[in-house]
Amino acid sequence: xxxxxxxxxxxxxxxxxxxxxxxxxxxxxxxxxxxxxxxxxxxxxxxxxxxxxxxxxxxxxxxxxxxxxxxxxxxxxxxxxxxxxxxxxxxxxxxxxxxxxxxxxxxxxxxxxxxxxxxxxxxxxxxxxxxxxxxxxxxxxxxxxxxxxxxxxxxxxxxxxxxxxxxxxxxxxxxxxxxxxxxxxxxxxxxxxxxxxxxxxxxxxxxxxxxxxxxxxxxxxxxxxxxxxxxxxxxxxxxxxxxxxxxxxxxxxxxxxxxxxxxxxxxxxxxxxxxxxxxxxxxxxxxxxxxxxx
Length: 294
Known about the structure:
Helix content: 40-55%
Number of helices: 13
């Protein structure tokens, strides 16, 4: 706890801090501010792949590992009243002895590093849904969580600012917010890509281009089958005979075939009638000639 005036800042119970913070948050909501509190259910702060990977990454650095635990209690008891993730920054409000404002600046991912990640992941990300759910192959997981070349920032790329009187660079309020980011990624993993200034859909686009290129290179035709389209875009397509028969182009083709069949049948019937009538005329002429001769 920091030095305050001529003594230590007086202790404020958690319940009192949260009650005071709620009043201020309600006041901000009335002014139209979109308040986004961090709520932790249970003891575990992060429960999904992206949230856990974020926390594990930060804890892997010795400078952070020794200071982060100070914020666990704060984030668990709901002291992070607001946390907003934008490109290159995290804005937050944390309830302490007062309501403190924080801004954590995080450098966006360099274009060269992002291109390398896309290249190394090409052809191995099944779909956008699988990406956001963290259902990735071991290789892709290693790429995106690589300590130096992955998606997560290093301490050198992070700048911490809190307006509390604590002298430490990483005070307990900052630590709480960093853990709060992990909890938020549990719910919205796409925010990690937003924070680093890259488009997560580009990983899927690179896969789609690779799949289309591979599919079309197998033959001269550039038309993909339903199964290939399913593989490219990570969706299930109905390729049954009934679905194919019900398509608009096939209906038109069926009507054309039916019309042609009817015309052919009519032509055959006409030809057959003509063949029957022609032999009858010579027979009638012969009979008439015989009668005249008599």
